[in-house]
TrEMBL record:
Residues 5-143 form the FAD/NAD(P)-binding domain. PANTHER family: THIOREDOXIN REDUCTASE 1-RELATED-RELATED. The gene is trxB3. The keyword Flavoprotein applies. Keywords: Flavoprotein, Oxidoreductase. InterPro entries: FAD/NAD-bd_sf, FAD/NAD-binding_dom, Ferredoxin-NADP_redctase_2. Transmembrane segments: none annotated. This is Thioredoxin reductase.
Length: 288
């Protein structure tokens, strides 16, 4: 049996980090998934004046303080991308490629999803549309694959799938210079619609069309409804009560993912509440 955590936290922005601090203080066995760079949005903030105790600080300065706090508390971030979370009754199964983590409770702090769904994306999900190239790569041996990427660090996934597929098209949705394997064809165009009857057959772009067997859309975050089947979503945000509980027992959410205002101090406070609620939930389960 794999190791089971008390709390799994998805996201390393202010909400996720605040949840991790409280899980540590409450002496819970937890794991936090995210990015060691924490959050790009925070580091780009010019000046933040509404975070109590951090007057006239830049996002970068606050980020450094976050890092110092994590170091002091001996909290490390696991840089793995969770693709799906399944409620299994007494615990949750968190899927990372072929690997599964187990946790008694889950806190979703994934932030706001950037990039709206493409026409045809939801309908063809699992029928040629996917969100993890390395997970599904074996299905595309000697086939044509298109990757729509929102982040430069996803170039590694493109390079990996190029060793398996017969042809890879790469569509960067970011501004940095692209450096992928020379066998990969870079398309600088805007995706509009995914076309296919029972499975993907082509991608329509603003100025062109690509015939393709599979399309991987690598966004910074998967929409919470796709991440956790059965999760109640209202107006593109996860619905929670004042204790940050979702409609799924043992699943909590905090930060921008639950709605406006999108502010760091609000997110940190909600992460605190979600963590206290998750700790109480874990305690109530262990007493049974």
């Amino acid at each position: 049996m794999s190791e089971r955590y008390d709390i799994a936290i998805i996201g390393s922005g202010p909400a996720g980090l605040s949840a991790a601090l409280n899980a540590k203080i409450r002496k819970k066995k937890f794991i936090i998934f995210g990015n060691k760079e924490l959050t790009a949005k925070l580091s780009k903030a010019h000046e933040i004046n509404n975070y109590l105790g951090f007057y006239k600080k830049s996002g970068k300065e606050i980020q450094e303080e976050f890092n110092n706090h994590l170091k002091e508390m001996d909290i490390s971030i696991t840089e793995e991308k969770i693709n799906n979370i399944y409620a299994m009754g007494e615990y949750f199964g968190l899927m990372v490629n072929e690997k599964m983590y187990e946790a008694t409770s889950v806190i979703l702090a994934t932030g706001v999803q950037h990039g709206k769904l493409f026409d045809g994306e939801e309908r063809l999900l699992g029928k040629g549309v996917g969100y993890c190239a390395t997970c599904d790569a074996p299905l595309y041996k000697n086939k044509v694959v298109t990757i729509i990427s929102y982040n430069k660090h996803e170039e590694e996934e493109a390079n990996f799938i190029a060793t398996i597929a017969s042809k890879v098209y790469y569509i960067p949705m970011y501004k940095e210079e692209v450096s992928v394997d020379s066998s990969i064809e870079i398309i600088n165009d805007i995706p509009v619609e995914i076309i296919g009857e029972d499975k993907v057959s082509k991608l329509k772009l603003k100025n062109s069309e690509i015939d393709t067997d599979g399309i991987f859309i690598l966004r910074d975050s998967i929409s919470p409804g796709q991440l956790v089947p059965g999760l109640k979503i209202v107006d593109n945000h996860i619905e929670v009560d004042r204790l940050m509980k979702t409609n799924i027992n043992g699943c909590f959410a905090a930060g921008d993912v639950i709605g406006k205002p999108y502010q760091y101090i609000k997110a940190a406070g909600e992460g605190n509440i979600a963590s206290l609620s998750a700790a109480s939930y874990v305690d109530s389960i262990s007493k049974k």
